[in-house]
Write a structure and sequence with these properties.
It comes from Hamiltosporidium tvaerminnensis. The chain is an all-alpha fold and 514 residues long. Among the domains are: 185 residues, Alpha Horseshoe (Leucine-rich Repeat Variant); 100 residues, Leucine-rich Repeat Variant (Alpha Horseshoe), CATH 1.25.10. It is elongated, with a radius of gyration of 28 Å.
Length: 514
Amino acid sequence: MFENKTVEARRKQREEQQVELRQQRREDLLNKKRSMVSKDTAPQIANLKEMKSKVLSNDPNIVFQGVFEFRTVLSVEKSPPIQAVIDSGLVPRFVELLSTSCNIYQDPSTDLTTNTRLESAWVLTNISSGTTEQTSHVVDCGAIPLLLEMINEPSSELIDQGIWALGNIAGDSEAMRDSIINSNATPTILSFISDLLHSKDHLKILRNATWLLSNLNRGRNPPPPLPHMKSCIPVISLLTTHTDPEVVTDSFWAASYVCDADISTTDLILSTEIPNRAILLLKNIINKLSNTDSTSSYNDNSLYKIAMHSISPVIRMLGNILTGTDEQTNYLLDMEILTIFKDLLILYQEPSKQSRLRKEICWSISNITAGTEKQVERVFESKIIPILIDILNYSELYVRIEACYAITNSLSYCNTRYEHLEILLENNFLESLKDLLMVVSNLVEVQVNILNGFKMALEGCRAKYKKYGNNPVANRMEEIGLVGVIEELQDSGDASVSDKAYNIIVEYFNGEEI
């Protein structure tokens, strides 16, 4: 009953509970995918036939006008006519127009040629902001090699639009991501970013390139190729030290994806300065919010904006590391991660982010309490348990559930560490779990987890008080009416809930066996 949680078990828990977080990040990515110039609703393409004839013309000026018109209708905010453009059969033409070798270009160096290529890339960027099928159509028409070639263009606008289009493709799905990686894009993109890091110009391009790099490392079904991720890590590490908040934020998203993919790549992340940078940023926030030690190196004003902007991916990366091996978890524990988590739970009160941040931190702590006995002991030593129980009482439901997992996981060793139970009892954890149990009737997994927690607490207490015939946990459960709640769960429509409730009543409260 008190078995240690394996890495696989941690990952399973993480996958089941992280769907909402992944969906939110997906929405964030989608919001920046389309390059918009208008907030109008897309008009019907009444003159589609005329526009199409312009794009297919042999006159460069007419072609430019046609491509410009298509880009305009695709750049509206609401319901752009992506499918109508695809159905027109023009995507191969837009791809063809990316290349300077297209036969309509008399001189590749003219502004007309550059502008036509730019507008064509913009069209493909916006088509790639659509569904997977629509993005796939752009790829199938051969856009990736030509978009990659744009990275070496002298025109910064062409470079930026090419990167934007590639970022949309990579951000669509694992298959689209791999279509770029398999085009031998990684060395080109990494070399380009490395060059940009030595330049003070082109910040907008660096932001988009970092976003592209994060998308090229995102996804676990399947994860990106291991050689690709390994080659990206040194550049990601450099990007986390940049002075621009957006660059740092997307670089930490990239690091979090790499840690989410493979234990060996997590080790590589830990061998860089990325963890130290993460801790530096979080300590900067804590020192600013606590208004203490103004001379500390962690109280740098220039870091505060960066730290506040990047806090979500920083916490996610640390949480992903904590799902790894015991050695990886110990690495962060030795960096005082629990003290940092405790301070953030107390001090961080940004209204738009507080609940989500608390959810992430509680999830991270639940992965520590799912670890070894020594790791669980460090959680209790950190004095974070009362804060977790407070969150379990008063936060939004989705945050309370994560705090619940952190608490129930910590019971795994209470048969040998009764002092853990004493701390939990002093902070009324049974009352808190009872209150949560009564509002999660539609969440079977959470119900089962809470019942498992009760069983571990009862068994741990029985092991200590066996000779005295007294079980303080059982007594408290009866005093607060928790036994009655568990009795009612014997009638649950879900067998996993009813069976566990029945077993608790029979084994610990003299229930009648059926």
